[in-house]
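$ ./design --mode recover --in tokens.txt
reading tokens...
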């Protein structure tokens, strides 16, 4: 796919504005693998030209591998009109807004073989504006996702074991240093599952609105 971006400091652009021919010269073609615009509250629009030359599959998954984007909106060509259909998701929106129940944001796209379509995405974040976008064939995505979840699960299992062991030593020896170490390990675990969006996906979906506070608290 070909990607270009448009800066929206006033957060006032609409899809009609961004998709108009007058805005075309203001879009900056992407020249790097992972665009990073630093810490900003401003919105960024991304335009994707997708061309499917694979005769085997029409279904593709577009993943934003940065897991903490506050708001991510996808505008896809409408099948019933000349306009666009919008899907709005992000970590500060309910997890039910996601196409796939997964820690990173994944959009499910249908691109007929030997066709070309243009999509627009609007991103807004309260921290880093990092846009690592990957287009996946579904089988490859789910295989890669399973491997990543296994390794993350092993890490959390080791940390949880260390937490339990230090709590055992604290209650057995009554040495406060073991309690402090257990609190540190607990904070690391809680930070990791929140930062990686595991908390709201697999444990407590209703806490999505409290995400920023959870990260700071942990």
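writing sequence...
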């Amino acid at each position: 796919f070909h990607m270009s971006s448009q800066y929206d400091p006033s957060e006032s652009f609409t899809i009609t504005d961004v998709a108009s021919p007058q805005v075309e010269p203001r879009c900056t073609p992407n020249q790097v693998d992972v665009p990073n615009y630093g810490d900003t509250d401003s919105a960024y629009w991304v335009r994707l030209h997708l061309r499917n030359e694979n005769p085997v599959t029409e279904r593709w998954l577009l993943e934003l591998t940065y897991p903490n984007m506050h708001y991510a909106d996808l505008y896809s060509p409408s099948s019933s009109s000349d306009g666009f259909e919008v899907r709005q998701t992000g970590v500060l929106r309910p997890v039910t807004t996601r196409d796939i129940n997964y820690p990173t944001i994944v959009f499910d796209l249908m691109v007929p073989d030997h066709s070309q379509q243009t999509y627009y995405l609007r991103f807004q974040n309260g921290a880093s504006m990092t846009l690592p976008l990957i287009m996946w064939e579904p089988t490859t995505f789910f295989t890669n996702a399973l491997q990543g979840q296994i390794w993350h699960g092993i890490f959390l299992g080791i940390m949880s074991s260390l937490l339990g062991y230090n709590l055992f030593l604290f209650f057995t020896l009554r040495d406060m240093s073991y309690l402090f170490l257990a609190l540190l390990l607990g904070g690391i675990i809680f930070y990791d599952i929140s930062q990686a969006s595991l908390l709201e996906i697999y444990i407590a979906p209703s806490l999505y609105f409290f995400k920023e506070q959870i990260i700071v608290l942990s």
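exit 0
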